[in-house]
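User: Hi! I'm a student and our assignment asks us to look at how structure tokens line up with a sequence. Could you show me two examples?

Assistant: Happy to help. In each example below, the sequence comes first and the structure tokens follow. Example one:
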Amino acid sequence: MMRFDPFREIEELTQRMDRAFGNGMTTQGARLAPPVDVHEDEQGLELTLDLPGVQPDDIQIEAENQTLTVQAKRDYTRGEGRTAHRVERAYGTFIRTFSVPAKYDLTKVEATFDHGTLTLRVPRSEAAQKRTVQVRTGGQLNAPKTVEAGQNSTAETQGAESTQGA
């Protein structure tokens, strides 16, 4: 579903180490990767990201060239006359980038944000939808077969070869 990106894995490992040892927690330029669940069904992909404390206006979603990027910002504000004794929550820029296969239509992404959870739905493209194809053999119409878009059945392949040779 998603391609392995070693640089993203290294960035996430660095962020985990920083969180574990308390480095860069309140740095304004910190880039954090929010946790995500990715599910797939016949309609398409569903990505669910945790963005606690983020305002909907501070979320940017970009879909371009089979890449889906989610960026959000949560600022740290310390009130006047207050001393911070412990700051453990993550602040700064949250960013996550996903490589989306071509069988999904990034022009129809839907996003909902509810109680700190962002849900993105990416539908399958029309060309990738399953459809029923009638197969003829010996002049008779056989039972319809459902084929996945982009796959050739044996009958289709043989038919194409026989028409090319004629």
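Example two works the same way, sequence first and then tokens:
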Amino acid sequence: MPSAPSQSLETFPNPQPERDYTIRIRVPEFTCLCPKTGQPDFAELTLEYVPEQRCVELKSLKLYIWSYRDQGVFHEAVTNRILDDLVEALAPRFMRLTAKFNVRGGIYTTVVAEHRAAGWQPPVQVSLP
């Protein structure tokens, strides 16, 4: 049975909730539609997050991203909507979504949206000799 797009995001328990660590996910084939022309827009998404209690299950993320293929939406709106949905599903300590859209009319667009949990500070960077 073939898969179908879905707006559902599944999660699983963070295997190391006591530790700050970063998960990076690259999605090189994001597509949506331009709300003005109906033409396809292509982007590479990079998701970076420090999980709290839950992590995103990758197949559900793939199907969720696929659900935008036929939606007409501005770059800024879709980037923030995806971030909001992921924050709602995961409640991470920190999350950043970078959407690098391909050229359209001689213009490249990159949208970066971030979330920080209340009171969370990134660990201090230590320089090693």
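Here is something you could point out in your write-up. The chain has a mean pLDDT of 93.
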